[in-house]
Amino acid sequence: MKKIRPIVPVLLVSIPVVVGSLAVACGEYTCPGGVCGPIAVDTGNASVGTSAVELQPNTAPMPCDVLGDVGIPCVSAHSTVRVVVSGYTGPLYQVELPNGTTQDIGSVDGYADAAAQDAFCGGGGCLMTIIYDQSGMANDLTPAPPGSAKPTWGEPVNADELPVLINGRSVYGMLFKPGLGYRKLVGNGTAVGDEPQTMYMVTSQHDLVNGCCFDYGNAETSANNDGNGTMEAVYVGMGVIWGTGVGGGPWVMADLENGLYAGWENGQDRDISTNTPLTYDFITAVVIGDTADKNNGKGRFALYGGDATQGELKTMYDGIRPEKPGYVPAQKQGSVILGIGGDNSDGDGGRFYEGVMANGVASKETVDALQAAIVEAAYGR
Asked: Are residues 70 and 38 in the same domain?
């Protein structure tokens, strides 16, 4: 999508007057009013049929505040499109030109300063080399180091391949393809062992590649496959060769190492009856890892998913952990991964807009409040 710099003042964007139900597609999602980003027009010329409106700052509750207010502190928080921790004023990500020159990209009114990226990157060619942790725990994500499944480094995403509209701003998400991935090898303050955690990411049904594994979450600090239960990450996709929900996918699942779990039903991990497809342009996917004492010693994990632009999240699964050795108790190690599996498996693809990891178990009420905060962020409009 061609980007045209606005010539209107800061915080103003020109929006065409909507005629009937006019809408156009930007990527694979529909933009209300037919606008997918700032359009340069002369607002003083009445003949162009436009009117200037003031862009609103992000006044929605921040996801990490929703969690923190109930005693579940974020320990990693990443987004290239917006601030997800109130009061955070640092950079969201870093871009790098082919010549090695870098620039940090911050935020304006809570949303990424994409104009700064455009000015620095010129005609393109930038990579996103650092995704900064907004939680204060310094769990910044950089290209993933080699692991047992892929003995080479992960590559960073191209900075301008996923333009997206959010609350009237044109910003950039992250488009993952096979070979691209990030990691904080040894996390700071992240859950280890059987400690509980809540995590989510905002992603999409589009650009998914059915390889292992489009994850965001907790993994091995060795970058190797250290056995069942040594991961606990949120995954969205078709399940690769492991478990499935019903209806063809994509599904939200928990990557617990050596398996993507849509749940556990009738002693197995396939065709989980409650886990239905997430066919949305913007998806909220939540994984909760509870402790081994739940469900009479069988442990617990829960999955929630839905449309990140409206409505509540559905409980896709809430029950026991897989009845296989190693999963109870969990054996998390606390690495933070994005776009890869725990052993640096990197044959996947997908879209990433934001995600957090927090220490503790969110109730369904808190999950509902988290979803409400994400909906208010106004993805796709």
From this structure: no
